[in-house]
Each structure stands twice: as structure tokens, then as C-alpha cells.
Amino acid sequence: MTTAISIDNLQAESPSTEPSVRIRDLNFHYGEGDLFKQVLFNINLDIYPGQIVILTGPSGSGKTTLLTLIGALRTVQDGSLRVLGQELRNLGAKNLVQVRKNIGFIFQAHNLFYSLTARQNVMMSTDLYPKDISDIAPSSRSADILTKLGLGERVDYKPHALSGGQKQRVAIARALVNHPRLILADEPTAALDKKSGRDVVTLMQKMAKEENITILMVTHDNRILDVADRIINLVDGNLESDNVVNTDVTNDTRTFML
Ligand SMILES: Nc1ncnc2c1ncn2[C@@H]1O[C@H](COP(=O)(O)OP(=O)(O)OP(=O)(O)O)[C@@H](O)[C@H]1O
């Protein structure tokens, strides 16, 4: 039995490895003039390969904003944000696309195309972000990953014939098919019942550990907190706490367990 202790503002440092995400003095605001609203304040954070980090915090605290900045979906305004070794600040559109190729996105609304089969939905990823990662054709690669996620029998079914949990697994397959090094998930279990939610995060955990993928997941779902290696709490745009709950994944020699 391990007990987490709070290590406010202390990063889980792993000197031997380059962090997947390295954030320094990051600020972000929406709007200008009368509409100016700062939503992230002086964020500093390192996330290492293979870590599963859960980002929690009250509604409106800036979680999705932070996730979309890390996903190279927003422009970095102030501070430094390195993702997979690439500084995103001042990076041109073309290079931002290159960074996104190594990121898998999973959202609450799985955003599947209802006119396409599970396999074709997964192939959207290989079409949008073609990566020269294997000789296997995208169609077979998509079927393989669906099978790995327990949907071997459903490869050529359309979403309306799938359950909520199965649809979310298609979305996970789509995020994983290009072998991303980083997965960003925003409330991936919000629309799922307890068992489906558990199955989905267990699968994500397995993939993270098997393929050394870094996962950053925003969730309000207390039922899945145990999959995390670290739990970070954001309040009013500030990193309020950073709790390491599993030290196995860092090379850190400090002991955080009581
Ligand atoms: N496009 C936008 N323009 C202006 N303000 C925005 C925009 N998107 C978000 N905000 C505001 O920024 C703040 C942070 O929003 P964000 O969605 O990042 O929070 P969150 O923690 O993800 O919230 P939730 O848990 O409700 O999804 C909120 O006050 C929100 O109203």
C-alpha cells in the first residue's frame, strides 16, 4: 500500500531522460483589451516518457487550454513549451503539424465519422498524418490495432452498431495507430459507464507501459485516478499540487512514498 505525499511545485526529475513535455514560465490569455482574460499563470512542469499523468481541477481552471497548448493546437504566447524535444514557441505552422504527427488525441466526444466503419475511422489518422512507420498497409494496421483493443469482430462495423465503450476504443485505436509518443486525452471516460470507463483506461495504461508512451489525461472521473503515476491539480490557472503516486516510472532517487 502506497500513500501519496504532496510535493507542491516539485517536479519528478529524471536527469537521464529528456522530458516528453517541458514547460517553463508559461502564461496564456484569451482576448484582448476589455476581453483580456489570463487563464494560465506561470506554469512549470516536466512530464517524462512512459508517465501517466492525470490533470484535475475545477471547471474553468484551464485544463483544456493547457492540453491544447501542449497538443500544438494553440499558439504559445509567453514562456517556453517543449514537446517531444521541440520548442513550440514561435514554431511555424508546418513544423507544428510535424509535432502533431507524434501526438495522439482522445476526446470525450469520440468524434467518429458515422458513415465510416471502425477501420475507416482509424485510417483517417493514417491519411491525415501519414508516417513511414511500417510496411504494413494502413488498412491492415488499422484492423490490427482494433483487434489488439478487443474489437477484432467489429472492424467493419459502423459506429451506430457499437456501444459507447467500443466507440471510445475506436477513438483510442485512431490515436494509437500512428505510434504516437504522447497521448493527450480530455475526459476520455466521461460518457462511459463504470466498467467501460475502467476498460478504456486499463487499455491506455497497458499501451503506455508496453510502448513507453506518455499520457496526459484531463479527467473529473475519480474512479480512474488509480491508473495515474502523477496527479496534477490546476486551480484558477495555477499548478496547485503535483503528487507522485507511483515512483516506478521515474529514475528519481528521492522517496515520495510514506
Ligand atoms: N476560446 C475561448 N475564449 C475565451 N475564453 C475561453 C476560451 N476557451 C476557454 N475560455 C475560458 O478560459 C478558462 C479556462 O477554460 P478551460 O476550458 O481551459 O478550463 P477547464 O479547466 O478545461 O474547464 P472544464 O473542466 O469545464 O472543461 C475558462 O474561464 C473559460 O471560460
TrEMBL record:
Q: Annotated Gene Ontology MF terms? A: ATP binding; ATP hydrolysis activity; transmembrane transporter activity
Residue stretches making up the ABC transporter domain: 21-257
Keywords in alphabetical order: ATP-binding, Nucleotide-binding, Transport
**Record's superkingdom?**
Bacteria
Signal peptide per UniProt: none
The coiled-coil segments of this chain are: none
User: Which GO cellular component terms, listed alphabetically, does the Swiss-Prot or TrEMBL entry include?
Assistant: plasma membrane
Query: Matching Pfam families, A to Z?
Result: ABC_tran
NCBIfam families (UniProt xref): heterocyst_DevA (TIGR02982)
Protein's name according to its UniProt entry: DevA family ABC transporter ATP-binding protein
Q: Which organism is it from?
A: Pseudanabaena cinerea FACHB-1277
The record lists the lineage as: Bacteria, Bacillati, Cyanobacteriota, Cyanophyceae, Pseudanabaenales
